[in-house]
Amino acid sequence: MFDLLIQGATVFDGSGAPPVTADVAVRDGRIAEVGKPGEGAHRVVDANGLALMPGIVDVHTHFDAQVTWDRTLSPSPSLGVTTAVMGNCGFGIAPCPASQRETMLKNLSVVEGMDLDALLTGTRWEFESFSDYLAQLRRIGPYANLAALVGHSSVRTAVMGDEASTRAEPTPGELTRMQSLVREALDAGAIGLASSFSPNHAGFAGRPMPSTIASDAELRALAQPLAERKRGVFVMATGPRGTTEFMESLAAQTGRPAFMVTVLTMYNDAAPDVAMGYYERCAAARARGNEVYIHANCHPLSFDFTLRDPYLMFSHSAFARVKAARPEELPGIYGDPAFRREFRADLANPKAGILFYGDWSKIEVEERPVSELARAAGRDPLDWFFDLPLDTPLIAKLFQNNDAGVAPLLKHESGVVALSDAGAHLMFLCDAGFGLHFLKHWVRETGTFTLREAVRRLTSDPAAKYRIPDRGRIVPGAWADLLLFDPATVGTSALERRRDLPAGGARMIRRPEGVHGVWVNGIQVHDGTDYVPLEAGPGEVITRFLQ
Description:
This protein is an alpha/beta fold and about 550 residues long.
């Protein structure tokens, strides 16, 4: 007797092969048979011609804190995600001595656009070490499978305390301790190491995130345990400093896959050929035997911010005053003609790695471009912009906004479809439904991908590149992570605002469309409308990975 039998589905097995109409049987959390099983089942689902695919593998999330108060990992499982990798950019919350908890959360609130009161109120600290953090995740029982990266900034903060964001060089003893923490995390089951050199990654009060001031030598020392253990991946928000050549050298040093996360690899109308150059250099690295890949986001990249915390502009030299200022000083700085002249000069001579190039049509207030609003007011857009109230919600849509330019990047084998940032930037956006958007926009609406290839890129491809075993395929023996959906209607709703975070915090979410069921390890976690009530979720804390 099977535990679950899904009958009559059009099965996309995740390999990219043509679909087949088949029944899929599940026993003990794994796929038992695909075809026409002869046995009965405790639960039978009539798929009635719907499509069945492996659950989506999301390798770029920030659920590290949220999972401690929300085992459902809302909204990702509702949007088809059954496996998530946390701790990206090196901004996890473990390891963390008790004395650094508030510092860790304050930095996280700024760099990942999270509600600080929600983080301070909701985060449940039952750990200090990375091993104990994973043990807490197991006790929680998440609704999706989770793998966690150990973070450079987290390790730096754990060892160097408040000086992690201000002192570039650790002592030899501190560096040795940081290396030990990375080894301990890998031995406990971390999927790899994450870091950031991005100049756009600033923490609380405008201070740089710890890893961004670290030397190349420090990062290489922390990556060395990957080589020693002969497992794990390296993921980095590179910025202009972390070139493809630098990333290839780390891949060669460790013998492990390296993944780049940077706006420089995203299509930008201001520099349309730059991104493809990165992809081609990654392909050349792989041809030399060094695996270097790029996190490729399939939706326009949006940045939520306010003039109180304009982090996406911090890489401009004019904003040095802003980063160092107290909140009450900001209106005076923004109104200073000298500041505005300096910023205009920055825009006229942009540095590598900046996010905003001066196109005011890309920044919106209540879904209307600043360029349009300033024109209606008869004013220069830069002056109109800096006269806004400090807390005006702003969204910048700067990259991946041109389908013709983005499509070749998404098709390139140097990329892995990712960068949902699920769990982060909750107050203004929600890209956790990147996979359903991929199926809707890039398959149904534009025909850029066939459905079977799109399923492969969302499932077995990221699982293989991240060395996650037995996920991303519908074959006997694989874990039964499944998404049942209607290809004709699959997608996500418009953004909806909810006030359901701890301390009454607000967030933006999306609901699934065309989804008829999500299963994790053979247990249904969402029925297409709502989460299935479970005392503990069926998600596995994944700690074993392929070499």
